[in-house]
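Cross-posted from the bioinformatics board.
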Amino acid sequence: MNLDVLTQRSGEWLRGTGPEADIVISSRIRLARNLAEFPFVNRASDAVRAQIEDFLRERIEKLQGRRPLTYLRTSDLEPLDRQFLVERQLISREHAEDHGQCGVGVSSEENVSLMVNEEDHLRMQVLRSGMDLDAAWAEINEIDDLMEQEVAYAFDSQFGYLTACPTNVGTGIRVSVMLHLPALVATKEIQKVFQALQKIGLAVRGLYGEGSQAMGDFYQISNQVTLGKSEIDIMKSIKDVVAQILGYERRVRTALVKENRQALHDQVSRAFGILQNAQTISSEETMHLLSSVRMGVNLGLIDDVEIPTVNELFIQTQPAHLQKLRHQKLESAERNIARAAYIRQRLAENNPHTSA
Amino acid sequence: MKKCEHCSKPAVLHITELQDGSVEAHHLCESCAKEYLTQSSEPESVEVESSLSIDESDDSETAEAAPQEQPPCPNCGITFKEFRSLGRLGCAHDYSHFREELTRLIENIHSEVQHVGKVPKRQPDASRQQFDLIRLKLQLKEAIDEENYEKAAGLRDQIRQVELELRSSSPAT
């Protein structure tokens, strides 16, 4: 797989379709698995890590799933390329920073990724655009069954699937739904959501998972408990909560439009105007303004740009993406100029009404 | 990357503090975070998102008493104390070897101690042979480190033998 090809498009999970796609960016399910015959990754010497990687790579490459997978040995990639895969959510930040031999099998649509030698020997994830956990589960469950025919998983009848960290033991599942919640953030109602989630044991994370901050009003809601509840029950608790948050965000959006349509229209239009014209712009400001524009489009206040373009810009304006697009290393100040130029170009080509 | 709010180093720890119903976010570099966390009067109310949610203060008595008595895992060599400081176990056998201690910990984390849900279709319990393999591979590494090549050769033959047995006992696919 040529990573440069990927820069030109975005993963299928960003296409902005699927149920509730105005608020739900993506649904993701990850399973953590370990091989019974090897020590866990953190306890494995470089030589043993290499053995694990060879063993799993061979099996991933032969896997007869619905989608063919391309295997990349991430430890052989440049740091910039690894960062690029992180920005596309194909590998985790922990995986990108890992030492020792590791890799990932990805589908060409970028909605399946099987990470080898992350915290666990195997971390498999399926992504879907919009609210579509059932489809994600069906596919990851199938991949898990196929892998299981080839390898012996570490499993215990009391503790379930055994993981390097006891916080993941049992089902080894993490169900996450990424939400765009600009209205709840703007009205500070989001704090009530956090407190309610905390109480029922669900985690809230930013765009890039554990430890990352909420950028562009994106929040990932996911389960923390992995043992003592079935995969289906865990998914159900996430679905129930997401349905409530969606209703909440929509009510607040409607109220904002009703109470002060003009001010809201002004705010989202100004955000769009800055993005169309800025000559230098930071990643943080970009995320913030794109978030306003995204809400403006969903509320019918802006019709000069489409949601998939906005979704793509969130990812393509990230540091590693910009540098890949420009085929050169860029310092922060240079990136801000390149970012502004890229956004101007994308918004102009997307909008036939604008004269160049 | 965000900068630390106390100095100009990059922030690596993002702490969300919940107190009396209000939420406060802090972005700190490692050294400032250490200082922040040790200063904090109520450790229970601080949640470091990137770290394992084992509260050391929570059951200090059992945590202190257990590791001295418990020998290290015969397969991977990890002690329970080492696990507590690393937050990661060494091999699958640790779950059997430290079952009692882990059951307490797992109950704290998940409020349950029995798995429900998906079960592998074959080999529901990791077999004795697979644990043997972990132990033999560890011994092999030690033998090589000690330059005891005679011992290493013997261990390598044993590993091959166990691997062969494992292959033949697995159902044909």
